[in-house]
Amino acid sequence: MTPKKIEKVNDVTIRFAGDSGDGIQITGTQFANTTAILGNDVSTLPDYPAEIRAPQGTLGGVSGFQIHFGSTEINTPGDMCDVLVVMNPAALKANLQYLEKGGSIIANSDGFNERSLALAEYSSNPLRDGSLSHYHVYEINITKLTEQALCDLNLPPKVIERSKNFFALGLMFWMYNRPLEPTLKWIREKFSKKPELIEANSRVLKAGWNFGETTEVFKVRYEVAPARVAPGKYRNITGNQATAFGLMAAAHRAQLELFLASYPITPASDILHELSNYKNYNVKTFQCEDEIAAITAAIGASFGGALAVTSTSGPGFSLKAEALGLAVMTELPLVVINVQRGGPSTGLPTKTEQADLLQALYGRNGEASVPVIAALSPSDCFSAAFEACKIAIEAMTPVILLTDGYIGNGSEPWLIPDIHSLPTIEPYYPDDPKKFKPYMRNETTLVRPWAIPGIPGFEHRIGGLEKKENTGEISYDPVNHERMTRLRTEKIMRLQDRIPLATAEGHTQGDLLVIGWGSTFGAIRTAVQKQLDKGKSVAHLHLRYLNPFPKNFSKLISQYKAILVPELNLGQLAQLIRARCRLPIYQLNKVQGLPFRSVEIEQKIEEVLRGIA
Amino acid sequence: MVTRVQTLLNTFSFAQNKPYTPKDYRSKEEPRWCPGCGNYSILTQVQKVLADLSVPPYRLAFVSGIGCSSRFPYYINTYGFHGIHGRAIAIASGLKIARPDITVWVITGDGDGLSIGGNHFIHALRRNIDINILLFNNQIYALTKGQYSPTSEHGAITKSSPDGVIDYPFNPVALAIGANSTFVARTIDRDPRHLQNMLKRAAMHKGTSFIEIYQNCNVFNDGVFDRFSNKEIRDDYALFLEHGKPLIFGKNRNKAIRLNGYIPEIISLDDGKHSTSDAVIYNEQDTTLAFLIATLSNHPNMPRPFGVFLDITRTTYETELLEQIESAITKNGKGDVNELFNSGDTWIIQ
Ligand code: SF4
Predict the structure, then answer these.
(1) Confidence of residue A268 (pLDDT cuts 50, 70, 90)
(2) A403: which strand partners?
(3) Which residues lie below 8 Å from residue B270, measured CB to CB, with a gap of 6+?
């Protein structure tokens, strides 16, 4: 056996792909977790079909998982992958488009038979017909090698078939020099009730590793040094989990019970799943009969003094519109989380999009201004959720938190904060029953007091009808209505005094400011960074607060000649910015259910710069 | 962690264990229903019953949706929430789950509770959250000025059915029993004593209590329930259920209901052939019987049953939730968020 050469690389992108029953998501998650533990910066993108079990072997049933890791800052799951691991022809066909020219294909050759080729609509075997000549193709009998590893265990063929993903994982661990132990530990915990599966999966994982070590097929192994990231304790986290944790942290800092009312919907259900595990943490979850029940139950809980939250995705968000207006009118704290997905209607349930921004801002009857906050990466969902709760409670208002399927399901390392270092959250309770009026406002913030049932002297009635200023009685008076409408809107505008000023990364003035919001952060940051490296006069501003905008927004953007707004919609933020300035605004829009690749943004930046030069 | 809400509740003294009078439950707002509306009577009886039961006003929350009846919370001096159309029960559910210490009443109507809010209605009943739902049934959309509702009778002429309603109505009591309720009753605005009794029974019941209250809308649907309240004739049209008693009705208490297999039928007690012992003995704990008797309303020749149809015991939603919380604490201790965040596979970067 010739010793293998070790090559150092900065960053690598691997994509695992197979049938949706092949355990691809597990494989990818295990690789990502192990990689993060090694100290690399990591970003992941799961990509799976909407159907739970799409027809086996078909293009529609392909499940993928992409991992981008490196020794430098990693902001995206990678535009294109360097290595594509495929279990069958459909996986190859569906994913070849993401493989860099010159990249490697590791194919389970046992998965390429006449039937599976036909299902993937291949007329000849691509591994053999020369059509992959731009790539390095490694054909490995993964199924057969798995069978051999398990031949003495007398396992049913189905079980053997199901553990082959661990072979691929073991091989990738070998190739990128990662330890097996974290996955072995995971296998032991996951299958603790089925010892035969612990044995089988562990063996296959090791077999994959050993295959890499012994075979002559692979001449090179790679080393990816740890990244220089901020010191501290880390764990890997998905956006939805980070959102759940952010809510819990906020409830803790506010010293309130957390109440989540929700109706199952892709891709937001994981927030409900996560929080329903934490009954011993002052968390109550309520799975409702529908989306409207979920938001109105949350409003009821908020009336009762809880930190109330409802989580959903686009279609459910539409159903919540009327009740959001009720929360505006009653001025109760409430956080509404929209994990956006492709729309309209049922749209693309498992794919990502940013097309609910204008709905979040305006999708209610009447003048109903609501603060809107967007998270920019999986781990950032924690801070965004925390901030949404803080504003909701302290300003007595519903707040909309926008994340999306891309960051909701994607994962990255999270620098675990010390809960005590997070800001406190101070509700505004009335203290004197004699002076109490439900709509008497704090002069500076215009916030009304939160009077909690159960306390004598503060009995009061609120509801969706217009209120008389201060007293909160029903009022149809025209002048009072205008006054109250302005007060409600002004209360939200005054949040500008407490939210941080916007800052742009890159040149403080210059040719082009790229403005984004939400999950496009990583792709934009990477693209702008590359342009800065090339000496271009560009900068990147990413908006966390979409309503109200930061106070210095207009001033900041006036320092540039032009603006480019890349968005996963047809130009919603661009429209909001256009209403605020006269600068030329260029758009880059994509609605394919997929995130931006940073090169798409780079190309657009270059094109715009050529145009304005 | 002691929540701020608990701290607040502990700060205020509750030494006022005084007897309450109906006046204590009157808010400053003058009710603005039409003169003669059945809602007035219901409001008065609710205030009486609350005083009788001595529930402190600050421990009460009245939640309503949209419609004439849903203005109710403004007129009662407790915590109150006037919600949006159809959602009162969902709002109340959230409030009760978050605050099991608050006594929650829901005021809804036939349009609010059975049409736009029908989904919340059936799901609340099966969950058995400890809230009391009063459904004021006037068989019409009154606030929007006279369209037919899901309880309007087939053929009813209304603004939106000039040629007669062609859908068939819900029987709210049967619907509630079918939805796995634990307490179902029917009463009428013009019988204050019966109304009070039913309200008291609902208040005492642990779990979701549902009362259908026939409420006269003297503007858009006057007199639809007259036969059940007019003293001259009501005994022939109304059948009052009492637990453990035979189902007897009629002006001279000379008619009874017996079961022929599964079919309820009227027998005459003075035809010489039947006696009281042929009549069904009512049992509030028998769901099947409750349903059979509830269906009497579907037959024009049968008397309309009033009273408690069903009163059974089942653990409430919030009790089970609190039990799960307790057992989670016993099993895993009181959760520490810092520990939780630091759990799982972590690594340290120096
Ligand atoms: S319209 Fe009918 S239900 Fe409404 S307040 Fe008047 S009488 Fe009562």
Answers:
(1) very high
(2) A339
(3) B252, B254
Q: What is the pLDDT of residues A151-208, one digit of tens each?
A: 999 899 888 989 999 999 999 999 999 999 999 999 999 999 999 999 999 999 999 9
A213 contacts A174 by C-beta, under 8 angstroms: yes
Closest-CA residue of chain A to B88: A296
Instruction: Compute the nearest-CA separation of B17 from chain A (Å).
Output: 12
Return the CATH number of the domain spanning residue range A5-223: 3.40.920.10
**In sequence order, which residues have a C-beta less than 8 Å from that of residue A381 and are 6 or more positions away?**
A239, A240, A242, A243, A246, A375, A403, A407, A408
Which CATH entry fits the domain spanning A235-421: 3.40.50.300, 3.90.180.10, 3.20.20.300, 3.40.50.970? 3.40.50.970
Place of tokens 């603005």: B32
* Residue from A35, A461, A468 whose CB has the most chain B CBs within 10 Å, to mutate: A461
B18 is a domain residue: yes
Question: Which is the closest atom of ligand 1 to the Cα of B32?
Answer: 5
Examine the pLDDT at A601 and tell me if it is beyond 70.
yes
SS3 label, residue A350: coil
| Domain assignment of residue B51, given as a range | 2-226+309-334
**B-proximal residues of A, 5-44, CB under 8 Å:** 33, 36-39
Helix, strand, coil percentages for chain B (3-state, nearest 5): 35, 20, 40
Q: What confidence tens digit (pLDDT) does each residue in A8-59 have?
A: 999 999 999 999 888 999 999 999 999 988 889 999 988 877 776 678 888 9
Is-contact A429 A449, C-beta < 8 A?
Answer: yes
